[in-house]
Amino acid sequence: MKKVITVLALFLSLLGAVSFADQADAATFKRVAYRGGKKLNIWNRSGAGKKIVGQVKSGQKLTLKATATYKGNLWYELKNNTWIMAANTVTTSKYASILKAAKQNKVVSLANKQVGKAYVWGATGPYSFDCSGLTQYVYKKTIGTYLPHYSVTQRYYGKTVSTKKLQRVTCSSSAASQRRTTWASTLAAASSSTPPAPRLASSSHTSAPASPASSIHPALGV
Question: Quick one: which of 71, 97, 184, 203 is 20 to 30 A from 151 by CA?
Answer without folding.
Answer: 97
